[in-house]
Amino acid sequence: MERRYNARILDGHYIFDFVDPDILQRPEELGGEEGLRQEQEAEDDFEMDDRKLNPEEQEALAEIRKKKSLSLLIQQHRMKKSTAESRPTLPRKFDKERKARSQSRCRKRERSLDRRDTAGDDAMDVDGDRPTKKLQMRYRSRSQPSGEVVPGGGFKDSAQEVKALKLAKKSVNKRNKDAQRGEADRVIPTLKLKHLFSGKRSIGKSSRR
Fold first, then answer.
1. pLDDT digit string (tens) for 142-162?
2. 45: which residues sit within 8 A by CB, 6+ positions away?
3. Burial of residue 134 (number of CB atoms within 10 Å: 0-12, 13-18, 19+)
4. Domain count, the chain
């Protein structure tokens, strides 16, 4: 009875047999050992033994170190380039500062054009029709299409519009009916028809019953 209700025993095993008191310290120690090993390997790669080298070996060692440093620089440059290219760029329409700068430039350009046109119109003859044409062209270039939807737009005539409205109404008719169905409208079809499955089966009736 004591073994059954003992909190230190689970599924017939003693829990403390599976608990390591140093489980949190071991990863830190392993991480420190791994760092020391990597530093030692890096030093071994770039350092030679203490024995004396002849001029040819020194020249070869200098060439190897030069190639290693060059390859390291190339690798760092490639990493920087790849991160710069993979960095997400903000689209122009969402860049508020850039948009504000472009709008202010457009306004300044329009004001300068207005002043220039006004000065040219004052210098020209008032009776001539050239300034009027110039003003009309300028206002036409500034006009923008309205964003409002005109009723009946996109149809050739009224008959085509009526036909389109009928087709649209017909297409949503079944969906609206299904949406209005309730619990009382549920239909359970007859799976076994009575005139086929009632009565005795005599000889020769197995294929039809």
1. 555 555 556 666 788 888 889
2. 68
3. middle
4. 1
Q: Is residue 69 part of a domain?
A: no
- Side-chain half-sphere CA neighbours of 96 within 13 A: 0
2-48, pLDDT tens digit by residue? 666 777 777 777 777 777 777 777 777 788 788 888 777 766 655 55
Residue 131, in any domain of the structure: no
Q: How many CA atoms lie within 13 A of 38 on its CB side?
A: 6
13 three-class SS? strand
Residues whose CB is less than 8 angstroms from the CB of residue 50 and which lie 6 or more positions away in sequence, other chains included: none
Answer whether 197's CB lies under 8 Å from 209's CB.
yes
Residue 29 lies inside a defined structural domain of this protein: yes
Tokens of 194: 């009575």
Range of the domain at 32: 9-40
Beta pairing partners, 91? none
Contact 116, 123 (CB under 8 A): no
Whether residue 15 contacts residue 8, with contact meaning beta carbons closer than 8 Å, is answered with: yes
Note whether 8 and 16 are within 8 A (CB).
yes
Structure tokens at 100: 């504000």
Q: What letter would DSSP give residue 22? A: T
The H or E element containing residue 7 is none
Q: How far is CA 113 from the centre of its chain?
A: 42
**Exposed / middle / buried, residue 73 (Cβ in 10 Å: 0-12, 13-18, 19+):** exposed
128 falls within a domain: no
